[in-house]
Amino acid sequence: MASSQAALLLQKQLKDLNRHPVDGFSAGLIDENNVFEWSITIIGPPETLFDGGFFNATMSFPQDYPNNPPTVKFTTEIWHPNVYEDGRVCISILHPPGDDPNFYELASERWTPVHTVESIMLSIISMLTSPNDESPANVDAAKEWRDNRAEFVKKVKRCVRRSQEML
User: Order of strands across the sheet with 54-60?
Assistant: First the structure.
């Protein structure tokens, strides 16, 4: 039952995004027969290090969505403190609801069922604009962001260039 409700909600969110596109990203299904797996393209936010980039990602929804968050994973190379080396995005709203077992986040910062694909994507775009280096997924990127900004910028620019070449 939860699975069919999740599917209906996801179909509605996709239809809304197609009807009223949001600046900064596009979304669609990877396979027309599976509403739980989405393909996302994020356009690097203007006037940021990621400006001009086209970053592809997948968004995988659990069968009990919206009670639990999707996972988002970049398939385009990206260098960022809040993205694991395998491409998984690490931001508070994508963490399961409830108290953080590591005490880094408040429950109010974590996933709640009011989030939509749009709010998730806007949070990821915001993450690109303002990295959080205090609880990084990629420790090396966070260290570089703090201590060697020139090298960080160089790696990000290379990712932007590669993303453009893949078009």
Answer: 25-31, 34-43, 54-60, 71-74
